[in-house]
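Subject: Sanity check before I submit

Could someone independently write out the structure tokens for this chain? I want to compare against mine line by line before I put it in a report. The sequence has 209 residues.
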Amino acid sequence: MILLTPKLRQLRRDSTPDADFKASLRSRLVADQPLVKHTFPVHAMRYAFATASLALIMFLGFGSYAYASSSITEGDTLYPVKTTLEDIEGSFNRSPEAQVRFHAKIMRRRAAEIAYRVRHNEPLPPQLIDHLADSMSVTVGELSELRHDEAGRELIKTNVKLEVTDALTRLRTEIELSNMGTAEKARYLHGIDLRLQKIADIPTTTPLE
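---
Independent answer below. Compare away.
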């Protein structure tokens, strides 16, 4: 056993490849490997990711401002951001009562945008007037069709009716006190009065305060 151990150690040393063989084998393996070329270099991907992240942060920041501000109206650079965020919000409102509340909210926002322009003596883009007209039609239609045979819906219907009435009344006041031309003012007031009458005609069992 004493003589066998040194022989085993010598056999292991003899079977170990020498340094020259290892270097030659390493060079051959590296040479045989195909060269992989990245379509997009790593540094370019990092730059693109950083740019996209910065753009997202800026979008969220500007989007929050655009979404909340009545001063961002039709024709402003951030207006498409505002309406896009509104569309995203609307996609989450599925139930009939949620849809009514959402469209009433959009109608109030369009009314606030027009009121802002009127208050600052700015011209009213035809598209903005069309947006308000469409929004009022949708809101009045959905509010009229909302059934109140389930708990809570009647209260929602009454609250929405109050909200849109208040928004249109405030817009009417802004237009009435504005420096707008007589004919133009009369046309807008007539359109608002028609919508206010339609909203007033929507039946609710809960009395309006």
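---
OP: Matches mine. For the report I'm noting this point. Residues 42-200 form one domain.
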